[in-house]
Amino acid sequence: EVQLVESGGGLVQPGGSLRLSCAASGLTFSRLWMAWVRQAPGKGLEWVAIINQAGDEKSYVDSVRGRFIIDRDNAQNSLSLHMTSLRVEDTAIYYCGPSSLDYWGRGTLVTVSS
Amino acid sequence: DVVMTQSPLSLPVALGQSASISCRSSQSLVYSDGISYLNWFHQRPGESPRRLISQASKRDSGVPDRFSGSGSGTDFTLRISRVEAGDVGVYYCMQGTDWPWTFGQGTKVEIK
User: Fold this and answer.
1) Which among A106, A95, A2 has a CA at the least distance from the CA of B46?
2) I need a labelling partner for B31 at 20 to 30 A (CA). Which of A7, A99, B68, B112 fits?
3) Which residues of B touch A47 (CB under 8 A)?
């Protein structure tokens, strides 16, 4: 059974930093492009970042480029998202998963507020 | 960025009836391999999204055949036949042809 468990969310002030983690099991993690997708409260879905199998090719949506870094550890089957210079508009549930989005975790809520 | 436009945004449907959701892209989603990378997702209230359809018309494992996807290029459709109570929620289309991949605004399906 595929499991994706996101963690690390919480309340942070504007300008602050947060590191999200995703533990994956039940899939061949090292062979997959992986991604972060977010959903602001009551809003639609938005891609945040993707990373290739080796971790040396990364792409970001314009709104987070230069502030967020996606990374992975294939030995630990884990994905991370290091978020800096957080803005109120980054408030959302953050989901991790394969870039094919055929599996989703429950997500972790990030709230950016003073 | 490719803009994905869904219609309608709200869709009341009677149980047992059919529903149809349109998704149009601002540019062709046909990739160099000839495939349109268009996915459909369903999100029930309080739950994570679930993929239903990939490559415009390929139904995912476990998805009832009441759900069907069609289209190519810029025009795509998700059809739900014999709507059931569990089909309520928001349906999103998403293009995976051109980065950044983008989602439609979502169509809220409810039972009338």
Assistant:
1) A106
2) B68
3) 100-103
Q: Answer yes or no: do A59 and B49 touch at CB < 8 A.
A: no
Ranges in chain B, pLDDT < 70 = none
In this prediction, residue A22 has a pLDDT band, given cuts at 50, 70 and 90, of very high
Share of chain A above pLDDT 90, in %: 100
E-only strand ranges, B1-112: 4-7, 10-13, 19-25, 38-43, 50-54, 58-59, 67-72, 75-80, 89-95, 102-103, 107-111
Say which residue the tokens 């009441």 belong to: B66
Set of chain A residues whose Cβ sits within 8 Å of the Cβ of B94:
45, 101
Two tokens, residue A88: 């109120």
DSSP class per residue in B30-46:
B-TTS-B-EEEEEE-TT
What pLDDT shows up at residue B67? 98
| pLDDT number for residue A75 | 97
- Interface check for A97 against chain B (CB to CB < 8 A): the answer is no
Of the candidates A61, A102, A105, the beta carbon closest to that of B51 is on A102
* Other Cβ atoms within 10 Å of A12 Cβ, number: 18
Q: Which residue shows structure tokens 């468990």?
A: A5
Identify the pLDDT of residue A58: 97
Among the partner residues A47, A100, A104, nearest to B49 by beta-carbon distance: A104
The beta-carbon neighbor of B48 closest among A46, A100, A104 is: A104
Q: Is the peptide bond before B100 cis (omega within 30 degrees of 0)?
A: yes
